[in-house]
Design goal:
The protein is an alpha+beta fold. α2 runs parallel beside α6. The mean pLDDT is 83.
């Protein structure tokens, strides 16, 4: 039996890792593109993109692992049914209950991993992401500059370009700045060979000191521009939003336990929900993986995925209802788990029970 268990575990886990890797690439690529667009717009510094993705990784993993394990069982066991390996196992004395028990044992480390991610690692990572976002919001325009790119900065109304920027972001070369007037009328263009950052020790204000350049002021479409050359020109650097924002996903599980806020309680229930998904989808997948060799290898995937999507969708609906106070907290998301646990139990044991009932009824009729 240990040989059978190792074989089943290897087949399921290899399929799970392959599916989870593909899903991670898809979801993380989409999120990375979103952050990359924010960096191109000057809302984020390009230096922090990979840090954010690394801290977000546990959050992606806690959502993808249950789905990857579910699909892994469907693919592995579906192939074994198609190639008659399951028929051989049943002929050698492995019952359906034993197959389910071994698969649930395989799901145990996956459930523990998802639980650790959901309760501890993912909130820690989101806390780090929250700190990075707050630092970026509080950063000055100067710290968000990127060389070789026109950037419309978060303060609005100002477009900045620099050909080169030192590693410490204190020296600029080839500077171009375009800024509209207070009411959107009039345009001011500044060009300079170089620039550097200056901090007033008395007021704490920061200035961009431009050297050897010119300032052009006027209204687009008209010819009466004022041109002023300068050896040094100071431009105040605007600071970002000093307010810090807290994300619910970044709160520790202990803090959620101590909170009475409905949104925090809903988040707490959600964190305990994710590891509970794993054994329930295991119960569903073992039965849904059965496939007739004449139907094809992937025939069973569509109905199985519909069941999983319905399960996850109802969990999200239940979480929102709990957040809005429409569902008592003692019920929480438990009713969804009970519903699909009953469905899985019926799919697994219902047909055999009905078959025995029919045999007993036929036996009584003949007697």
């Amino acid at each position: 039996m240990s040989i059978v268990f190792r074989y089943l575990a290897r087949q399921v886990l290899i399929s799970m890792l392959a599916v989870s890797g593909i899903l991670l690439m898809v979801f993380m690529s989409g999120r990375f593109i979103k952050y990359l667009a924010s960096a191109a717009a000057g809302e984020l510094s390009g230096d922090v993109l990979f840090q954010i993705m690394a801290y977000r990784f546990p959050g992606f993993l806690e959502l993808i692992l249950p789905l990857g394990f579910f699909i892994g069982i469907l693919l592995a066991y579906g192939r074994m049914y198609l190639e008659s390996e399951m028929t051989v196992l049943y002929a050698c004395g492995v019952s359906e209950k034993q197959l389910l028990g071994k698969t649930l044992l395989i799901s145990l480390p996956v459930m523990l991993t998802v639980g650790a991610m959901s309760l501890y690692v993912s909130p820690w990572g989101m806390k780090k992401v929250e700190q990075i976002f707050n630092e970026q919001r509080q950063a000055t325009e100067f710290e968000l500059l990127a060389p070789g790119r026109f950037q419309e900065l978060s303060s609005g109304g100002r477009v900045t370009y620099t050909e080169a920027l030192s590693d410490d972001k204190r020296q600029l070369q080839g500077v171009f700045i375009a800024e509209y007037g207070a009411e959107g009328e009039g345009l001011s263009i500044i060009t300079a060979e170089s620039g550097s950052q200056f901090v007033d020790e008395k007021t704490g204000s920061r200035f961009l000191v431009l050297e050897k350049g010119a300032r052009f002021e006027g209204v687009p479409g008209q010819l009466d521009y004022d041109v002023t050359g300068f050896d040094a020109y100071g431009l105040k650097i605007r600071s970002g939003d000093a307010r810090s924002r807290e994300l619910e996903e970044g709160m520790s599980t202990r803090a959620l336990f101590a909170s009475d806020d409905p949104e925090h309680r809903a988040m707490l229930h959600w964190r305990f929900t994710l590891p509970l998904i794993v054994p329930i989808v295991t119960l569903l997948a073992v039965r849904l993986s059965r496939v007739n060799p004449r139907q094809g290898r992937f025939f069973h995937l569509l109905p199985a995925m519909l069941v999983y999507i319905t399960y996850l969708g109802l969990l999200i609906v239940a979480r929102d209802a709990l957040k809005d106070g429409k569902v008592p907290e003692w019920i929480g998301l438990l009713w969804v788990h009970v519903l699909f646990l009953a469905l899985g139990a019926w799919l697994q044991f219902g047909p055999a029970w009905l078959y025995r009932r029919r045999l007993l009824r036929e036996g009584h009729q003949r007697a």
